[in-house]
User: Fold this.
Amino acid sequence: MKNRIKKGMTCAQVSMDYFIPTHELPEDLRLSAGDVALFEVTHLGKHTQIQSAGRNLTLALGDQIMAVFGARYATNQFEGYVPETLQEHYHILGGGGVVGILESSHSKFETEGPTQLKMLGMVTDSSGQILNTIQVGQPHLSKFDGTAASKTKVILSLGSSMDSGKTTTAAFLCHGFAQQGINAAYIKLTGTAYPKDRNLAYDLGAITAVDFTKYGYPSTYLISEQELLNLYESLLAEVLPFQPEYVVIEIADGIFQRETRMLLRNPVFMSTVHQVVFSAGDSLSAVQGVQTLNQWGIMPSALSGLFTASPLLIKEVKEFLYERQELLFLPILNLEDLSAGKWPMVKENFSQLQA
Assistant:
């Protein structure tokens, strides 16, 4: 057991052929997102497991794990960053094997805190260069030009916040398409490495499901707008061989989150989008979310999310919509509606408001 290394999914393809122990690393070493390292578990907190390429691996004190440095933005869980320099302790920020230094956490995790690690060393290539999963993946990215999106119909699944229901909405939308014999693929474009979302979409009928980890990103938090666009182009190209009529693309967190806002405010990106579904947790966030998207020139094709589990919340939203003539016919779809294929099938692109 002592020499068994538990690998997070972020470094599933990384071998331990070359390694520099921590005491041999230069004191002024600058760490970067994507750097691969070996750690020892010194304290168990929130993460008692990490997700490998195949299954969840239970952690115990003293375990050795291989993981990747990355930042995380998760309003209901952790905010954390890659430290610029070597530290005495590190934290597991994401269950897929994303490590950094905790900046803040949701109050529900304050008691247990994060799982803490001690670095044992950095994984390198044969030349002694620290392995970086992003640097390995980036040469395979396609330059964004909108070509891939022109060969299918992109539906964006957006949410008012983390845990507003956008993943479930996206997955059940794929299920509804499958029930009608329509090929739909799923992409998670932004977020932190973890396979649960793409697995759900695939299990419910997506013909294929991929995410940003395909290109070595432990998370997309704080990457550049151009990288986001290149990821979008590349992931779409990955699913096109399956000939999807629709590609449901989930963007993590809420519409005010950095990367989400960048994409939604980018007119070139939005011109490639066929339709938008907006998920919300309650009636106020549903209404205000629609208003914010309208201000940005975006009209959702439908509303969904956690609020649709409550007939009273649906009633509140409908009462507001009926007061706004331009929103009078905006559909509100619960999971049963999505599974039944009640998605508004329109030929024209109307995710953008008419000028």
User: Anything to note?
Assistant: The longest helix spans residues 225-239. Residues 346-355 have pLDDT under 50 and may be disordered. The radius of gyration is 21 Å.
